[in-house]
Design goal:
Number of strands: 11
CATH topology of the largest domain: hpI Integrase, Chain A
CATH class of the largest domain: Mainly Alpha
CATH superfamily of the largest domain: Intergrase catalytic core
Number of helices: 22
Strand order of the largest sheet: 9-10-11
Helix content: 40-55%
CATH architecture of the largest domain: Orthogonal Bundle
Number of domains: 4
Length: 485
């Protein structure tokens, strides 16, 4: 990305640049005139095919079009001494791509053997294949990145267990993602792995050995077992498992410190007092209590007051229309955020499903755009199609080594992953509440469209839509009667 220009200073530099006509320091005298430093840098980075057929750097200008050095007469060194390609020279006569590859190779060379392990070679190949190698140089020259790469270089064979021993954080997660995305490590469910690691640390807060054993069994045979049964652990399932574990630990510690009792002697009075004297999140103890009853750890007549379903607010119709007008016509919003908002407010899609949307589900032609949400293609008329066309044209977040052949529409910042639902919700929060907007849209759709059609087109369970239909005082029979009338 080019640096922003400083304000012009005609008093200090009265002569104008021949290209931008600005008053800046002049650095080169070329056939088309004397040019400033900004235009000089831009010229070195202009690549394409010249009118004469030459492909490479086009620093000159002939007939108001970029031209190669021989045709324009511009004298400029853009020949890399390492690879021979035409590119902006970065250091030692080498282009940015070659310097990036040399830096990566130096960091990933085993100090004992003097060679790069085959599994680590994929990182070098991925970085040198980046469309913008300057981004790779910025990344790899950070001290914490270099520290992790040097630690990896000391091992001839890489495994997930080895990477787990590195300092936890975004750097390790990103490098692990690179290794998985490029086939150096097998893929694994990172949310499941993160939960297991987090739960192991969380159990250190348990006050007694008796409760520690009970909670360890609950995590192993209830929470972990359920997560492993899922094809892919969703963001909501991961967060729900963490919150359930936290509430369970707090409940057991509360029994110990406040009532000097254990889970085996818990009574209904304990559960009622626990729920009534704290936040609503304490209702998440329900899963632990049900498991404890099932395993005969506590009496079977104990109950937890569950959350009442159907009480979440719904976005009114007038506000839905206002949001639609804003996301369709507000050009200041990022196309990604506009497209996500359209999928929620028009098609009532869950944020988890939106985040995992792939380009295979989207068909774009010059005439129309369609999206497949549940096995059925739905046309997106203009102007609803504008944000997805912009995303497709700009190759959103796809110019780094993190996404070599990414299928995701919403590529994440981690290698090979899509963006997280939580991030999308936070991005949309100033505009709409994702759950409130989705429920409001379902409330409107179930009043005008048959349940069977909605379920097939939008991917909902018919029973779920029936519940929404009853809540909006509209059943399929009422719809038919209205249409006949």
């Amino acid at each position: 990305m080019a640096r922003p220009r400083k304000p012009e200073n005609p008093a200090l530099w009265p002569e104008q640049c021949a290209r931008c006509r600005g008053h800046y320091p002049l650095v080169a005298n070329w056939p088309d005139g004397t040019i400033c430093g900004y235009c000089y840098q831009a010229a070195k980075r202009t690549v394409g095919i010249c009118a004469c057929g030459h492909q490479g750097v086009l620093p000159g200008i002939v007939n108001d079009r970029p031209a190669c050095r021989p045709r324009s007469g511009v004298t400029l060194n853009v020949d890399c001494v390492a690879c021979g390609d035409e590119a902006e020279i970065y250091s030692g006569g080498k282009c940015q791509r070659c310097v990036l590859g040399d830096t990566a190779a130096q960091l990933l060379t085993n100090p004992d053997t003097g060679v790069v392990a085959p599994q680590l070679q994929v990182i070098i190949d991925a970085l040198t294949a980046m469309r913008r190698p300057n981004s790779g140089l910025t990344w790899i020259r950070q001290s914490h990145i270099q520290k992790v790469l040097r630690q990896l270089a000391r091992h001839p064979t890489l495994t997930h267990e080895l990477v787990d021993q590195l300092p936890t954080g975004r750097t390790t997660n990103y490098i692990r993602g690179l290794l998985v995305a490029h086939g150096a490590l097998p893929s694994r469910d990172e949310r499941l792995a993160r939960f297991l690691g987090w739960a192991e640390i969380a159990q250190q807060r348990i006050a007694t050995d008796e409760h520690r054993k009970a909670i360890a069994r609950f995590i192993r045979w209830a929470l972990e077992r359920r997560l492993r049964s899922m094809e892919t652990v969703t963001d909501s399932a991961f967060l729900r498992a963490k919150q359930t574990t936290t509430v369970t630990i707090d409940f057991c510690n509360w029994l110990t410190t406040e009532h000097n009792t254990s889970i085996e002697h818990v009574t209904q009075a304990h559960i009622d007092l626990w729920q009534s004297t704290g936040p609503t999140t304490r209702e998440h103890i329900l899963r632990f209590i049900r498991w404890a009853i099932k395993t005969r750890l506590i009496p079977s007549d104990l109950v937890v007051t569950p959350h009442r379903r159907g009480t979440a607010p719904r976005l009114p119709s007038a506000e839905q229309n206002a949001v639609i007008e804003q996301v369709v016509h507000q050009q200041t919003l990022h196309p990604r955020d506009r497209f996500v908002a359209i999928l929620i407010i028009v098609f009532a899609q869950r944020v988890e499903d939106i985040a995992a949307l792939t380009w295979d589900q989207v068909t774009i032609t010059s005439d129309a755009v369609s999206i497949n949400l549940a096995g059925m293609s739905i046309d997106m008329p203009s102007p609803l199609d504008e944000p997805i066309r912009l995303l497709a044209a700009t190759n959103y977040n796809g110019q780094t080594a993190a996404h070599p052949n990414s299928p995701w529409v919403f590529r994440g910042y981690g290698a090979g992953t899509h963006i997280t639902p939580t991030y999308l919700r936070n991005r949309l929060r100033p505009l709409l509440g994702a759950l409130e907007a989705r429920l409001g849209t379902l409330n409107e759709l179930t009043q005008t469209t048959p349940i069977a059609v909605l379920a097939e087109a939008l991917g909902y369970n018919p029973q779920t839509l029936e519940a929404h239909a009853r809540a909006s005082a509209s059943t399929y029979s009422r719809y038919i009667a209205t249409r006949l009338d």
